[in-house]
């Protein structure tokens, strides 16, 4: 299991807030503070659910 998945699993279990940086479809980089709520594997991909303020 890779480091990002382990980090998300630990964050969910311990109720930790994460800071996420991502690039939109038009190339704009944004930052978010997220509270991971769940992580699951579906159709050969890892997916997670989180609350973002």
How would you sum up this structure in a few lines?
The protein is an alpha+beta fold and 53 residues long.
Provide an overview of this structure:
With 53 residues, the chain is α+β, with helices and mostly antiparallel strands. It has one domain (3-52). The chain is built from one helix and three strands, in the order αβββ. It has one helix at residues 3-14, and strands at 18-23, 29-42, 45-52. It has a three-stranded antiparallel β-sheet with strand order 1-2-3. The longest helix has 12 residues, at 3-14. The protein is globular. The protein starts with a helix and ends with a strand. The model has no long low-confidence stretch (mean pLDDT 93).
Please identify the oligomeric state.
Answer: single chain
For the largest beta sheet, what order do the strands appear in spatially?
1-2-3
Overall body shape: globular
In total, the number of domains comes to 1
Number of helices: 1
Mean pLDDT: 93
Secondary-structure-based class equals alpha+beta
Measured by DSSP, the beta-strand proportion falls in over 45%
Q: What Rg do the Cα atoms give?
A: 12 Å
Percentage of residues in helical conformation: 10-25%
Task: Quote the distance from N terminus to C terminus.
Answer: 28 Å
């Amino acid at each position: 299991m890779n480091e990002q998945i382990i980090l998300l699993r630990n964050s969910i279990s311990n109720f930790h807030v994460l800071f996420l940086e991502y690039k939109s479809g038009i190339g704009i980089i944004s930052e978010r503070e997220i509270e991971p709520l769940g992580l699951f594997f579906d159709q050969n991909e890892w997916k997670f659910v989180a609350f973002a303020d």
